[in-house]
Write a structure and sequence with these properties.
This protein has 113 residues and is an alpha+beta fold. Helices cover 65% and strands 12% of the residues.
């Protein structure tokens, strides 16, 4: 029995619902990175990062390849970067609206609105 599309989407957003996973995906937008570089950029224990990378790998959002003793991670495709761009645009619009509301509020407090 297949899962309804809306449930599959909800599961995708649930697995993206952790700041470490989002940060990993953002860092990988610049290109493949070895684990040591990800650790240097993200304040998390190595075991924690490993668990988050495993979740992202199982979800096919990132790929991993071994180069000697180093594991290098990369985004699995452009769709992941596209999703992150869409999230930035949504947040930008939301914050822009909040900024406009704050400006109105501040003007009304000073008697100019």
């Amino acid at each position: 029995m297949s899962v309804p599309l809306y449930e599959a989407k909800a599961e995708l957003f649930r697995l993206l619902g952790h700041p470490v996973r989002i940060r990993v995906l953002e860092l990988l937008q610049d290109g493949p990175k070895p684990v040591r570089e990800l650790l240097a950029e993200i304040e998390v224990e190595p075991t924690g990062l490993s668990q988050h990378l495993a979740v992202l790998r199982r979800s096919d959002l990132v790929t991993a390849r071994r180069e000697g003793s180093t594991v290098v991670y990369a985004l699995s495709g452009g769709d992941v970067a596209e999703l992150l761009r869409a999230a930035r645009q949504l947040l930008s619009a939301k914050l822009s609206g909040q900024h406009a509301l704050l400006s109105e509020l501040l003007q009304s407090e000073t008697g100019h609105g």
